[in-house]
Specification:
By secondary structure, this protein is an alpha+beta fold. It has helices spanning 20-30, 36-48, 55-69, 98-107, 124-135, 155-171, 207-213; strands at residues 7-14, 77-81, 86-91, 111-117, 140-146, 181-183, 226-235, 239-245, 250-252, 256-260, 268-277, 280-282, 284-286, 290-296, 308-311, 317-328, 335-336, 342-345, 348-361, 368-371, 375-376, 381-388, 393-394, 405-410, 413-425. It has three domains: 7-213, P-loop containing nucleotide triphosphate hydrolases (Rossmann fold, 3-Layer(aba) Sandwich), CATH 3.40.50; 226-311, Elongation Factor Tu (Ef-tu), domain 3, CATH 2.40.30.10; 317-425, Translation factors (Elongation Factor Tu (Ef-tu), domain 3, Beta Barrel), CATH 2.40.30.10. It is built from seven helices and 25 strands. A six-stranded mixed sheet has the order 2-3-1-4-5-6, sandwiched between helices. It has a six-stranded antiparallel β-barrel with strand order 7-8-14-11-10-15. Helix 1 (20-30) crosses helix 3 and helix 2 crosses helix 3.
């Protein structure tokens, strides 16, 4: 068997009406991953609902529905082969519960396409998306300026939007000079998988070509094995199947594992019985693989989304409190001591309290501006002490950066994002 191409997880993010799902649907059709028959069926469905042109968006939505019904294990992910990679596309949902799912999506991504609609340009949520991608450690970002058909393929309009987005990129510390911008139309299939003849002025890559220009992900296989649980299914004939991405390390059949925090906060021990990816049974899964697994000794009641499956010999920690560096992105007023929002860490969501604002720091230099500030406002960065109000599995940046990042959410907004630097473990 030929050596499989390296896997790359790519997430598509963007404002609700930026046409993200249409770009993804078109990409799958034009690369032969969705048949013309399936497409014709979806087209009829779209017309029936009076949503002409929505058939591409239905491709991923159909997958999402099936996923919610739990028909098969890995339908939310679609595989796509390029010259260089095996791409797993993660579609970060639009409206509903948007950012919560996006955080999960982004925390699994090696590369991201930020989709912006040419007619609308930058939207309020665009900055939030960029911060999240940054915090979640997604270094490779390309910008797809979509719906070019709606602005008559105008180079002027493209340049204008590119400039607006460039400013935002700079604001979150990404250099717009080296960020690829793709001029495309998901609806018409221009510069998605095929080069467009409508924009002779555009000399850059198509979306498919851009995948191959992202650097190959360096897999953290040398770190201890960690798999945050994204969903848990009951599959007839197999039993309880937790699904998620192996963040770090290598998972092997027969490996002794512990599920943390588990129902009790003390963890539940087990042994890896089966590993499956894209409907194939594997002997091992490495960092970066999205898998469904079965663990001997672990049933449906023992495990839930947000738990982390760890190598038993080198487990993660359940934390009593932790010190983190955060940046306030979007707080309605100011953030002060005692504030208790929901923290999104890998796939977990746990309310945590800010118990101390230790020092405010300059985000560009890391120098201390002020000790024990009374409050923090948008744009401020600080070192803070935080106490989870439930069981939370977390690690420090220098031990395992993949398990140290988090986003802070409140009332449907991402308030802040950060990384954990020190922890106090829970006593058993």
């Amino acid at each position: 068997m030929a050596k499989e191409k390296p896997n790359m997880n790519a997430v598509f993010v963007g404002h609700v009406d930026a046409g993200k799902s249409t770009v993804v649907g078109r990409l799958l059709l034009d690369t032969g991953n969705v048949s013309e028959q399936q497409m014709a069926k979806l087209r009829q469905e779209a017309e029936k609902h009076g949503k002409i042109g929505f058939e591409f968006a239905y491709v991923m939505d159909k997958i999402r529905e099936e996923r919610e019904r739990g028909v098969t294990i890995d339908l939310s992910y679609k595989k796509l082969l390029t010259q260089k990679y095996q791409i797993t596309i993660i579609d970060a949902p639009g409206h509903r519960d948007f950012v919560k799912n996006m955080i999960t999506g982004a925390s699994q991504a090696d590369a991201a396409f930020l989709v912006i609609a040419a007619p609308a340009g930058v939207q309020p949520q665009t900055t939030e998306h960029l911060w999240l991608l940054r915090t979640m450690g997604v270094k490779n970002i390309a910008v797809a300026i979509n719906k070019m058909d709606a602005v008559e393929y105008s180079e002027e309009k493209f340049k204008k939007v590119k400039e607006e987005v460039g400013k935002l990129l700079q604001g979150v510390g990404i250099n717009p000079e080296v960020t690829p911008f793709v001029a495309c139309s998901g609806l018409k299939g221009e510069n998605i998988a095929k080069k467009s003849d409508k924009m002779p002025w555009y000399k850059g890559p198509t979306i498919v070509e851009q995948f191959d220009q992202f650097p190959e992900p360096k897999l953290p296989t040398d770190l201890p094995m960690r798999m945050p649980v994204q969903d848990v299914y009951e599959i007839t004939g197999i039993g309880t199947v937790p699904v998620g991405k192996v963040e770090t390390g290598i998972m092997t059949l027969g490996q002794k594992v512990v599920v943390l925090p588990g129902r009790t906060g003390k963890g539940i021990e087990g042994e890896i019985r089966t590993i499956e990816m894209h409907h194939e049974s594997l002997k091992e899964a490495i960092a970066g693989d999205n898998v469904g697994i079965n663990i001997r000794g672990v049933g449906k009641k023992d495990i839930a989304r947000g738990d982390v499956i760890c190598e038993a010999s080198r487990p993660s920690s359940v934390v009593e409190e932790f010190i983190a560096t955060i940046t306030v992105i979007n707080h309605q007023t100011v953030l002060a001591k005692g504030y208790t929002p929901v923290f999104h860490v890998h796939t977990a969501q746990v309310p945590c309290q800010f118990v101390e604002l230790i020092e405010q720091i300059d985000p560009r230099t890391g120098e201390v501006i002020k000790k024990n500030p009374d409050f923090l406002k948008n744009g401020d960065s600080a070192k803070v002490r935080i106490k989870p109000q439930g069981n939370l599995c977390l690690e420090i940046q220098k031990d395992n950066p993949h398990m140290s990042r988090f986003a802070v959410r409140d009332a449907g907004q991402t308030v802040a994002a950060g990384i954990c630097n020190e922890i106090v473990k829970k006593k058993n």
